[in-house]
Specification:
This protein is α+β, with helices and mostly antiparallel strands. InterPro entries: ClpP/crotonase-like_dom_sf (IPR029045), ClpP/TepA (IPR023562).
Length: about 45
């Protein structure tokens, strides 16, 4: 979990494996959080 916290701190969203409802909700929540935190900064997403 520390790995994913570090990625989020660096504005990186990492998606691995099959995307089901839970994973989709988590990704959307992370994107919304990062957008609200700093709307002008880039968000990096790795699939």
């Amino acid at each position: 979990m520390i790995f994913y916290s570090r990625l989020l701190k660096e504005r990186i969203v990492f998606v691995c494996g099959e995307i089901e409802d839970h994973m989709a909700n988590l990704v959307v929540a992370q994107l919304l959080f990062l957008e609200a935190e700093s709307p002008d900064k880039k968000i990096f997403m790795y699939i």
